[in-house]
């Protein structure tokens, strides 16, 4: 294989091991219950608002909402901070960050 691919694979494996040790221990995971519950509550409120506004009571783009939920949840655990992905008006910096992540994932998928 390509050296970049094997280097990325090694770096990714190291990152997964590190995050696993930090985040997946039962005692550590207990500490994330509150922040994650708050993110879940915000997601549910956001989905309800969108459903209430839609003429057929549907959430128009649920995949994007779950993507935002994932980012918000990860940031609340890794950074002990919220990005604002689930707010009615998302901060401009957060929108820029989301676009950058989507571009990064798109580029990564194209190189695989």
Automatic annotation (TrEMBL):
Q: What molecular functions are annotated in GO for this chain?
A: heme binding; iron ion binding; monooxygenase activity; oxidoreductase activity, acting on paired donors, with incorporation or reduction of molecular oxygen
Keyword field? Heme, Iron, Metal-binding, Monooxygenase, Oxidoreductase
Q: So which cofactors does this thing need?
A: heme
> Could you tell me the superkingdom of the organism this chain comes from?
Eukaryota
Signal peptide range in chain numbering: none
Pfam families, A to Z: p450
Q: What GO CC annotations are associated with the protein?
A: mitochondrial inner membrane
Q: Can you supply a Gene Ontology BP term from the record?
A: C21-steroid hormone biosynthetic process
Family, as annotated = Belongs to the cytochrome P450 family.
Listed name of the protein: CP27B protein
Lineage summary:
Eukaryota, Metazoa, Chordata, Craniata, Vertebrata
């Amino acid at each position: 294989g390509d050296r970049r691919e094997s280097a990325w694979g090694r770096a990714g494996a190291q990152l997964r091991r590190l995050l696993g040790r930090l985040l997946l221990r039962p005692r550590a995971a207990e500490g994330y219950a509150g922040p994650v519950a708050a993110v879940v509550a915000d997601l549910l409120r956001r989905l309800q608002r969108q459903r209430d506004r839609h003429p057929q009571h549907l959430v128009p783009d649920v995949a994007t909402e779950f993507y935002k939920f994932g980012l918000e949840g990860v940031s609340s655990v890794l950074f002990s901070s919220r990005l604002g992905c689930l707010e009615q008006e998302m901060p401009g910096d957060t929108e820029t960050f989301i676009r950058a992540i989507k571009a990064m994932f798109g580029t990564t998928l194209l190189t695989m």
